[in-house]
UniProtKB/TrEMBL annotation:
The keyword Transmembrane does not apply. Residues 25-198 form the Spore germination protein N-terminal domain. Its main location: membrane. This is Spore germination protein KC. It comes from the Bacteria. It is a lipid-anchor. It is found in: Membrane. InterPro entries: GerAC_N, Spore_GerAC-like, Spore_GerAC-like_C, Spore_GerAC_C_sf. Residues 230-391 form the Spore germination GerAC-like C-terminal domain. Keywords: Germination, Lipoprotein, Membrane, Palmitate, Signal. Belongs to the GerABKC lipoprotein family.
Length: 401
């Protein structure tokens, strides 16, 4: 009896050990090359249709241990008829396995984006090693490889610098916002519309020396990565770039902006500067006739006065009301510019069709197959309210007598 008891206990100890077997395809950490960013370019031939550049972290240079004084990242480029073949080609150049589980940034060239990114997104969603929360950028007017091979001042890893720049501009005075792989996948499935993706380019002349630490030794770096402009898509193809009022109005309609500056020009010269620090935009639709829907854009914003170059009485409700009315006109102007540009590009990346679909599903079914034509002629009204909450640390400006 005692032997049976001990035998049963032994089995209980052995069974868990059998279950805790190692993964058949595991790779030790010291055999992995951690990829922080990927650049995707379109080749000129079918054999080199995909050009993938992998920004690999050199761990010894980041940690400082066993440092050899070389670049903290290395760039490996592979080509192929498919993305998988390009990855295989690049892996032949490295002594370690390319690990895609930590990719933070994907940069797609403008040439590639204009041809269509649907197949690319299918690969990213299908591959188990990639992350759907990696940020996507479109390189404006230059190969994506140049973006991945530009050294940066505030981060040893250029991919991390792009992420930090995007976070900064989305929180302070910018119209760029986080756009990840899964956001883009959802965007290209919007009937009659598409995603909006951040643009990036190098300010200054890019040269091969831009990928060297020597380019950062001067007080003014030769090349600086800059996040700017928005790439507007129709389905999976790039249709145009949004800047200025059109870009700002687009982000306002998506409710993806934290705060931004507004300037009001004065007849006497100079500008009043305001910071819009709260903004909420919503869409209402009247669809008794789905072929001719009427949209109302409701805008609610709060502002703070930052600069007042002229001696106005800022304690007067009338003065503040007049300034608020001018701010309302500016907000309406931003969204009108966004709508006009979307109609010109023939893409409803602003979400008016989705608003109609939510409000009137039956009506949407009648117009969804030719929504581009309906959107081009639909009426849009505005209901805006901007309140100046405070004037910061003082009311009226000081005067010199």
């Amino acid at each position: 009896m005692r032997n049976r008891i001990f035998g049963g206990i032994g089995v209980l100890f052995v069974l868990p050990m059998l279950l805790l077997t190692g993964c058949w395809d595991s790779v030790e950490l010291n055999r992995r090359a951690i990829v922080s960013g990927v650049a995707i370019d379109r080749g000129d031939s079918e054999a080199e249709r995909y050009k993938l550049s992998f920004q690999v972290i050199v761990a010894e240079e980041i940690s400082g241990e066993k440092s050899r004084g070389i670049s903290p990242v290395a760039l490996y480029t592979g080509t192929g008829r498919t993305m998988f073949e390009a990855l295989a080609d690049a892996s032949r150049q490295t002594a370690r396995f390319l690990s895609l589980g930590h990719v933070r940034v994907l940069v797609i060239s403008e040439k590639f984006a204009r041809a269509g990114i649907k197949d690319l997104l299918d690969v990213l969603e299908r591959e188990s090693d990639t992350r759907l929360n990696s940020l996507i950028f479109i390189s404006k007017g230059q190969p994506a490889r140049e973006i991945m091979s530009t050294m940066t001042v505030f981060s040893k890893i250029p991919a991390n610098d792009l992420v930090e720049k995007l976070e900064t501009t989305s929180k302070q005075f910018g119209y760029n916002f986080r756009m990840a792989v899964d956001d883009v996948i959802r965007g290209i499935q919007i009937r009659g519309g598409g995603p909006v993706i951040n643009g990036v380019f190098t300010r200054g002349e890019w040269t091969p020396a831009s990928g060297s630490n020597d380019s950062l030794k001067s007080i003014e770096p030769r090349s600086i990565l800059r996040v700017s402009s928005l790439a507007a898509f129709k389905d999976d193809k790039l249709k145009g770039w949004l800047t200025g009022d059109a870009a700002l109005g687009t982000v306002l309609l998506h409710n993806r902006i934290k705060e931004f500056p507004v300037l009001l020009k004065q007849q006497e010269g100079g500008y009043f500067s305001f910071n819009i620090y709260q903004s909420q935009v919503s869409l209402a639709v009247e669809s008794s006739d789905p072929e001719h829907p009427v949209f109302t854009v409701k805008i609610t914003q709060q502002a703070a006065l930052k600069e007042a170059p002229h001696p106005l009485d800022l304690t007067s409700p009338k003065v503040l009301e007049e300034l608020s009315d001018r701010l309302i006109k500016e907000s309406v102007k931003h969204i009108q510019a966004a709508v006009s540009t979307a109609k010109e590009l023939g893409s409803d990346y602003l979400g008016f069709g989705r608003a109609l679909q939510r409000k009137d599903p039956r009506g949407w079914k009648k117009v969804r197959d030719h929504w581009e034509d309906v959107f081009a002629d639909c009426e849009i009204r505005f209901d805006a309210d901007v309140v100046i909450r405070h004037t910061d640390m003082r009311s009226n400006s000081f005067q010199i007598h």
